[in-house]
Amino acid sequence: MELPAFPPKSSARSVTVVVVAVIAAALPLVGLVSLLLRSQRDPHFADYRAHFVVFGIVGAVAFALGFAAGEAANRRGDARVLLLSLAFMATGGFMGLHAVGTTGVLFMGDYAGFQVAIPVGLFVSAVFAAGSAFVDVRPWIAPMVIKYRALLHGGVLLAMGTWFVWTVARLPPLGGASSEAARGQLLTALAIGGTIIYAASAARYWEIFRHRRQLLPAAVSACFLLLSEAMIGVAVTGERRWHASWWEWHGLIVSAYLVIGFAARHEWRDERFRHLYLSTTREHPRDVSVLFGDLVGFTTFAERSTPREVAEVLNAYWGIAAPLITREFGGEIEKFIGDGVMATFNGRGDQPDHAFRASRAALALQKRLSALAEERSGWPQMRIGVNSGEAVVREVGGDGHVAYPLVGDTVNTGARLESLAPAGGILIGAETYGQLPDGTVVEERVGLRVKGKDDLLNAYVLLALP
């Protein structure tokens, strides 16, 4: 569990920052204690419609933040951001249930499950928060989280749906507003456990911030600290429902997600959560297959055609290539470069048959594009190169534009193979051919000279797969 080094700051400045942080963190608790000690300072204030609107909106915002973070996590395969997204979704979802159950708005009676939905959601969220904070403790945890990401997402949604149905049906132990689930020791135990978990997670994110001084890690630390204090409020306010102390711990939750929302809004829109990515997301080796395609004679075709006709050709070809590669064979389109396309297989490490997938995609692509070229007289054919081997995914760029390209000799050789492939044909590397099943039909090309490489290469024109 190594954190990237960061230049040391002056000790005086560090002490000042710590003191300010401690004072800021303690203020909500000081206010809570003052309310609890003197009942006249803890007046009763019940506004059901305001409660419904405020916590409905905040719940939706938290859930939306979680969804956005989840999209980024899926796109980059980052376990920390994925777990963080689940924490946000759990809090937002259960907060939404709490708002929906506000007495006198959508439901006329009190329901125990709706009353305790926020503390329950916060405890579920705390588990994911701890996971995101400590996911890099063991190297095997992150790949396992990414592997089962769909199951984790489904579990959170199922938990919310089950809680709603259980609550409305008034099944034990959620039988009524005065049931043990709504006011007993179990709720206090959840609150104490959640307080400890959030505090530990906040401390861990503070360590991440100290070594990588970016706004978002600091905001997540502050968010978890506020949620920890909110859980203290859950544990000690007891029966003071609708009192100022009850509103305060609700307000702490609102503040926590305002902090996260502000920080995320401040980040570069295309990669809002990249400052939370694990180091293994920013740079990691991967055994992949790459597919390069290029239209033969496209420059000549473009010279004798109008811009509209050129655009029509590209739209027709890439309109076939994109869904074929991604949906039918599970590849990822890295980029279209004019009349060329680059796609990768096994970019997330979940396709052990990546060479077979890439080869099948190449054959299917040639079949469909060749048929299209035959229908349209004069349209160019495509040539394709496929190569397999180790490459490195590396973050490049900064705010304004960030990319995660595959780099290495495997990628460069794949591009060179494409340039040597016959029109309407597929040229694959020796490593790709070695991973294909028996019965694969090829024509060997021996001693190919490739630009930029001293050694001659052996490659194969792919004709058919079993």
Task: Write up what this structure looks like.
- The chain contains 17 helices and ten strands.
- It is of the alpha+beta class and 466 residues long.
- The strands form two sheets. Strands 1, 2, 3, 4, 7, 8, 9 and 10 form an eight-stranded mixed β-sheet that branches.
- Helix 2 packs parallel to helix 11, helix 9 runs antiparallel to helix 10 (215-237) and helix 14 packs antiparallel against helix 15.
- The longest helix has 29 residues, at 48-76.
- It starts with 10 loop residues before the first helix and ends with a strand.
Query: What gyration radius follows from the Cα positions, in whole Å?
Result: 28 Å
What number of domains? 2
SS-derived structural category: alpha+beta
Q: Could you name the ranges where pLDDT drops below 50 across 5 or more consecutive residues? A: 5-10
- In total, the number of strands is 10
Shape: elongated
For the largest beta-sheet, the strand count, sense and barrel status come to:
8 strands, mixed
CATH-derived architecture of the largest domain: Up-down Bundle
Mean pLDDT: 85
Number of helices: 17
Distance between the termini: 45 Å
Features:
single chain, 466 residues, alpha+beta, Rhopdopsin 7-helix transmembrane proteins, Alpha-Beta Plaits, 2 domains, 8-stranded mixed beta sheet, two-stranded antiparallel ribbon, elongated
